[in-house]
Amino acid sequence: MGYDLERFVGYVNEGLLCSICRDVLEDPLQAPCEHAFCTACIHGWLLHHRNCPEDRQVIDVSLLRPLYRYMKNDLNRLQLHCRNREYGCEMVCSLESIDRHERECEYSQIPCSNAGCTVQVERRNLDGHLAVCEFRSRQCPNGCGYTILSAEDTQHNCVAELRTELELLRSEMICRVEEAKHEMESRLDSQRRHMVQKESILQNEIEELKSQMSRMMSDVRSLMAAERQHRQELEQAELEKREL
């Protein structure tokens, strides 16, 4: 849908009107036959038709192009009233700058920022509404630190709130202690498995050393026996030499 023609000041050229909604072009596109449309209007039309609504020439979304520059410039220079005119805004500005003005207009209807409040107020009156809004929040004046809504003032009980907070803290502490306990047990199990593995490796190494020592002792005994045999042979040879 385009901009309501009634909002514009002065004459609006027929070529700047949407061929479908007959309002002033909004986000315009142009067909090869040079008829112009609001983007939303022509896209909605082409969902059910395959031709121009003015001259019935065949068109497709891929054939649509932006408005000619001179037409775009003429469109942007049009003067119109702010849409908040009914609320008291008297601003008249160009179509090119109307969106920027309306985003900041003091007469715009905006929702209250308090959760749960459905009231819409003019931007200029928002601060006044927030000061009296029944959904506004504040700190408990008795010092319990709890944030309360004005609507809950009569139901607020500091002792009950602090008791609830204490229970929550206790539950959280118990959870943290359990988590720390599980983590420590997991670490101890991991270290225990590691130590058992190391013990097994050391035990194997000890057994290997024992086996090597046993072989060495056997070799030493064999060497000692060979040495005795060799000494006896030398003594026997010396004896025979003396006899000769």
Explain what you see:
Helix content is 49%, strand content 11%. The protein is mainly α and 244 residues long. The termini are far apart. The strands form four sheets. The chain has a three-stranded antiparallel sheet with strand order 2-1-3. A two-stranded antiparallel ribbon has the order 4-5. Among the domains are: 5-104, Herpes Virus-1, CATH 3.30.40; 109-148, no CATH class. This is RNF41 ligase.
In short:
This protein has 244 residues and is mainly alpha-helical.
Order of helices and strands: EEHEHEEHEEHEEH
Tally of strands: 9
The N- to C-terminal Cα distance equals 142 Å
Mean pLDDT: 87
The main sheet orders its strands as: 2-1-3
What are the segments in which pLDDT stays under 50 over at least 5 consecutive residues? none
Helix content: 40-55%
Radius of gyration: 48 Å
User: What fraction of residues sit in β-strands?
Assistant: 5-15%
What is the CATH superfamily label of the domain at 5-104? Zinc/RING finger domain, C3HC4 (zinc finger)
Shape: elongated
CATH topology of the domain at 5-104: Herpes Virus-1
The CATH architecture classification of the domain at 5-104 is: 2-Layer Sandwich
* The CATH top-level class label of the domain at 5-104: Alpha Beta
Structural class: mainly alpha
Largest sheet: 3 strands, antiparallel
Number of helices: 5
InterPro entries: Znf_RING, Znf_RING/FYVE/PHD, Znf_RING_CS, Znf_TRAF
Zinc finger (TRAF-type): 101-144
Keywords: Coiled coil, Ligase, Metal-binding, Zinc, Zinc-finger
Domain RING-type: 18-56
